[in-house]
Amino acid sequence: MDINHNLNNKFYYPKKGICVILAIVALLSMTVVFSFRAESRLANNAKPHFTRKDSLASQKAFLKVYAVLMSPRCMNCHPAGDIPLQGDDSHLHLQGVKRGPDGKGLYALKCANCHQPHNLPGLHMPPGNPKWSLPPANMKMVFQGRSPHQLAAQLLDKKRNGKKSIKALIDHITNDTLVLAGWHPAQGLAMPPLSHREFVKAFNEWISKGAVSP
After folding, report:
1. Rounded distance, CA 172 to CA 179, Å?
2. Are 103 and 133 in contact (CB under 8 A)?
3. For residues 43-66, b (16+ Cβ closer than 10 Å) or e, as one string?
4. Among 74, 120, 114, 116, which Cα is nearest to 97's?
């Protein structure tokens, strides 16, 4: 028997086996990484995971959401132009107030000059919140004049909704203090047509049953 042949076999085959094992490990690692990335993309996708699609129920739920978003407590801060709206009749804001690049007012006319962290006492006094502002100029999120179909499509579009995923939208309407301020209006102003709890429930139903645009 050739000693050199045996020596070659003794050292060559284990090395070959190690190379195969390393290749398999590398392949498995890449599979895990790509799988994780794919799951992350799905998790961040604007389209939700539907457990029970029902287009009719989804549309009905959104019409409830729409009624709240088009009420003065929401729409007044989501105008079609750069002037905020006021009152239950949604008239143009007095004093010449405008949006400004960051949504917090233009030049010396800043929202925070009148809108304090809390509602000021008295009839027709400014409502308050620490975050009081319009959406910024580069993401206006207009509600005024939008049909139910247009507004539903806008809410689901990251390019027009502040780059929010479905999860972020739900968190926004559930926990954002500026959204919640709509249910704590200044004295003399009307409440939205649904309670905040009913609004969140309708929003979740719209999403979970298909996020259908009426």
Report:
1. 8
2. yes
3. eeebebeeeeeeeebbbbbbebbb
4. 114
In eight-state DSSP terms, residue 113 is G
d(CA 52, CA 79): 35
Using an 8 Å Cβ cutoff, are 79 and 134 in contact? Answer: yes
Which residue is it, tokens 């206006």?
Answer: 140
Quick one: tokens of 187? 């004295």
The residue length of the chain stands at 214
- Residue 52: the pLDDT is 72
Task: Spell out the alpha helix ranges (H) of 70-194.
Answer: 72-75, 148-156, 166-175, 177-180
pTM of the model as a whole:
0.76
Model confidence pLDDT, tens digit, residues 114-155: 999 999 999 989 999 999 999 999 999 999 999 999 999 999
47, 211 in Cβ contact below 8 A? yes
Contacts 24+ apart (CB under 8 A), 162-168: 162/135, 163/139, 165/43, 165/44, 165/45, 165/46, 166/46, 166/47, 166/48, 166/207, 166/211, 167/43
DSSP structural state of residue 109: E
3-state secondary structure of 105: strand
